[in-house]
Amino acid sequence: MDDLFEGGKKLPLAEDFYTIQGEGYHTGKAAYFIRLGGCDIGCSWCDAKFTWNRHLHPLVNADEIIARALSFPAMSVVVTGGEPLSYPLGYLCRNLKDNGVKTYVETSGAYPVTGEWDWICLSPKKQSPPQPGIFKTADELKVIVSDSTDLDWAEENARKVNKYCRLYLQPEWSRYEKIVSGVIEYVKKNPEWNISLQAHKFMRIP
What we know:
Layout: E1 10-20, E2 30-36, E3 59-61, H1 62-70, E4 76-80, H2 90-98, E5 102-107, E6 119-122, E7 140-145, H3 149-158, E8 166-171, H4 176-189, E9 193-195, H5 199-203
Parallel strand pairs: 2-4, 4-5, 5-6, 6-7, 7-8, 8-9
Antiparallel strand pairs: 1-2, 1-3
Helix pairs in contact: 1-2
């Protein structure tokens, strides 16, 4: 597969845009988002299902993506998807970091980590659990909560991450009104957890 992507010099780009981060530890910070196409995890509540089929998204030269990211003042890039670690990301990260850009990735952890990251947000999924190695390097654990069983899943993963990893529970957007009160009560009883809200959706920005 590396041959198809020329070692990461070409990547299936779903979209890229400059915005404000809306989830987790870095909520409220400006960043350039690179959303890669292709995901085989298949979350029923996914709000980016248009990314799932990699073949619908053109292979774009990574240098072009990097040049666009460098044209914005934040000098922070979030790589997301889809599942971004489906692809070799060493070339993208190396060239971003050579230009002084901080690199962030949002991943399910189902694939081995490639690239050099200033921040790894691990969002594990039951149907395709994380690779064991990512737990020690994750800076943030963000578990999407759509029902009470997801709290058990969150705790299972929290036992595996390093002691410095920040812990977040995020109400699933389509069920927000039904479950947010339960998440609030859980965090009040278990204050090692924080709540992540999809602030960008409240702000109506990308």
